[in-house]
Amino acid sequence: EKDEQRGFSHRESFRGRFERSLALPEDADEKGVTARYKNGILTLEIPKIPVAKPEVRTIPVQTA
Question: I need a surface site. Which of 2, 29, 49, 56 has the fewest CB within 10 A?
């Protein structure tokens, strides 16, 4: 199921032992990943690494 506002979500249903692995995107902050398991739902939050914005400067121009 896709959620346009929050990104996306994926639902699966299994009984017994379950294992899943996934590759994180390049812009994922690996150290900031959190996981919650509540009422049979595992929620992963994977923050993005902030992109450095270029510095904007105003340079005065002198006229002769």
Answer: 56
